[in-house]
Amino acid sequence: MRDIIVIGAGVVGCSIARELSKYNLDVLVVEKNSDVSEGISKGNSGIVHAGYNEKIGTLKAKLNIEGNKIFDDLSRDLQFPFKRNGAFILAFSDEEMKTLESLKENGEKLGVEGLEILTREEALNIEPNLNKEIVGVLNVKTSGIVSPYEMTIALAENAAENGVEFKLNSKVTSIEKISEGYKVTLNNKELVSGKIIINASGLEGAFLNNLVSMSKREINPVKGEYCLFDKVAGAMINKTLFQVPNKLSKGVLVTPTAEGNLLVGPNAVEGKTLETSREGIDEILDKSKKSLEELPVARILNTFSGIRPKTKGGDFIIEEVEDAKNFINVIGIDSPGLTAAPAIGVYVVNMIKERLDLVEKKNFKKTREKIVRFAELSLEEKNKLIKEKPAYGHMVCKCEFITEGEIVEAIHRPIKALTVDAIKRRTRASMGGCQGIGCTLPISKILSRELGIDISDINKNSEGSPVIGFKED
Fold first, then answer.
1. Nearest to residue 30, comparing CAs of 47, 14, 52, 50?
2. Which CATH class is domain 1-82+145-219+311-370?
3. pLDDT-derived band at 470, boundaries 50, 70, 90
4. What is the pLDDT of residues 39-79, one digit of tens each?
5. Helix, strand, or coil here: 419?
6. pTM to 2 decimals?
7. Which of 49, 217, 299, 460 is catalytic?
8. Domain BFD-like [2Fe-2S]-binding: where (predicted)?
9. Is residue 49 annotated as a catalytic residue, yes or no?
10. Which residues of 242-263 are buried (b: 16+ CB within 10 A; e: fewer)?
11. Could you tell me where the DSSP H helices lie in 86-169?
């Protein structure tokens, strides 16, 4: 029997797993998809929120602010992309300026540092491409941008290096209470058991809660659609641009990404289908044009959507289920869940300390080395690496300058990349201008060779998405 089973390998589940890996525990993470960060964590804005607009006294406020402070050290230790670029909240009227004053006051009461109101002229001096119709802005200095999937992968790899086991392609189909804990069925056949269950399963959170408890939960999925622009567009601004938020969301933003692209979105549409719509994309483009003087729509690379798991109360639900001892819900983690994730890990481990005697590992490895970025090396370093490993001399993705050596390394990391999209999230191969037209097949061939399987069994992402629909002779 495992000490702890974490259900869900998104950024929250992996943050919890990494925090648990600091202790002498037998921890298993189960994930229904073929990779970590395949669900909510891959489809969001990638913003590290300051927390100025959260409601005083809520878990969201507490964990947002605590999580924000962890990012500098965590990104350095685990080597994932993070920049504290700051944010502007834009006001277009005197009434909205009053709202900015209220947001500033709320943030200061919560302990958020670096909040200041700037005049129109001061804001345009910093970001000259802003809409000239602004009246003023709230400058939020502690806001940042992060690659959410690279962060999740880094957390998972570090947890795995410290002894946590990950079972991918393992959907929880039933949970049964037993005398010492819980018996969990995976894919209707495999059984695993654990003393403590941590339900960090995102959109499945209510379903799993309802398997063990008479106190039923409900999660309402809200879709947000995005447009991703190229890096030329990404150079137009430095700060994340928000408009005055509403009750449903923080509004449509315009932001550089941690990798240098430009991202606009999201809107808010009830439902969990991931398809983007013409109406939705038109909506976010129209609203984002209010922030920037000119939006270069010709530089759109792709559109995508993500899902936010909303709950009736609006706050994070992080608690032991009343009628299911040692079953801990970590559900309803919508925005600012990405920011809060590292603090959620600490918070949940403190709950575990009340249930198990935890002994810290003497050999905990707190750092993780990222995949070599060939394009970032000096000429001398490149030549040296090619001599040692000739695969680094073969350019596979010409848009993002990704080599075969990087792809091979991604496949054989502690959390293996098993699909084309898993390679993309680790290396950026197929994220450039051609969006994979030129490199999807070469990547698939490398995956086939390294994994020892037929190329027809290589998927783009999850099961049932083969890159090639036939077997080669």
1. 14
2. alpha beta
3. low
4. 999 989 999 999 999 999 999 999 999 999 999 999 999 99
5. coil
6. 0.96
7. 49
8. 395-448
9. yes
10. bbbeeeebbbbbbbbbbbebbb
11. 94-110, 120-126, 148-161
